[in-house]
Amino acid sequence: MATTIAAAALCPSPPLLCPQLTGRSPVLPELRAACAQVVGRLLSQDPDVIVVVGPGPATGTWAADSRLDLSAFAPAIAEGGTGGVPLALGLGAMLLDQAGYRGPRHLQAAGHDEPAGACAKLGAELAGSGDRTGLLVMGDGSARRTLKAPGYLDPRAAGFDFGVERAIRAGDLAALLDLDQALARDLMATGRPAWQVLAGAMPAPAPATEVLYCDDPFGVAYLVAYLRPRGAEAGSR
Questions:
Q1: What three-state secondary structure class fits 127?
Q2: Number of folded domains that form the chain
Q3: Could you tell me if residue 237 is inside a domain?
Q4: Quick one: which of 58, 166, 196, 209 has the most CB atoms within 10 Å?
């Protein structure tokens, strides 16, 4: 079956994206604005369904109404979501809610230890569902970019993240399948399996891409990007 990916949005998945967890003072407003913009562009393609893809303890699906359990990060917050939903999926659902999306959604976790081949196969299955699908791919780059990073400084981190950025900018998603799984784990790059699902969902020809944000605040690499099949007209069905 031919792939039916209308577009894809790539966002990181730090808890600081959630306003309820950061208080009144905006944290990284540029990152939040970029995520809102790229999700809005994804919705402008009017897909039949949006699939949120993100890393999780194991590969599997979650109920469409699952939401992030805020009490897991701030016990003082009484209202919560679905206990146990992976952070990346909960934040993806939050971004869709913030954008006012009320259409069909599918929450798909890719296991942290899932090999590249299995991730690519999952992506191909999502793309071949027959629906005109929008992908919201959630996941962080390395968390070892500086001395104050969550995982402290690792000199390999910058090169790893640059390789991911270069692949996205060039639309060379096949290069994401070559990411070293063990290195990604060492660098605490949680996005690796989700990016490889994206690679399986959007094989050659290379999509048109645009990077809206690329930086490493707090020593963690965050990338926001928009990807569309070449030749597709904006908003076309």
A1: helix
A2: 1
A3: no
A4: 196
Supply the range of the domain harboring residue 211: 5-228
pLDDT at 23: 66
CA dist 15 and 21 (Å) reads 7
Say what the pTM is: 0.92
Are 88 and 55 within 8 A, CB to CB? yes
Judge whether 191 lies within some domain: yes
Give the whole-angstrom CA distance, residue 214 versus residue 77.
31
> CB within 8 A of 48, min separation 6: which ones?
103, 104, 131, 132, 133
**How many CA within 13 A on the CB side of residue 33?**
7
Contact 111, 57 (CB under 8 A): yes
Identify the bridge partners of residue 141 per DSSP, sorted by sequence position. Answer: none
Write the CB contacts of 109 (distance below 8 Å, at least 6 apart in sequence).
Answer: 53, 54, 55, 56, 57, 58, 59, 60, 61, 62, 86, 88, 89
Strands 49-56 and 208-215: unpaired
Confirm if 133 and 208 have CB atoms less than 8 A apart: no
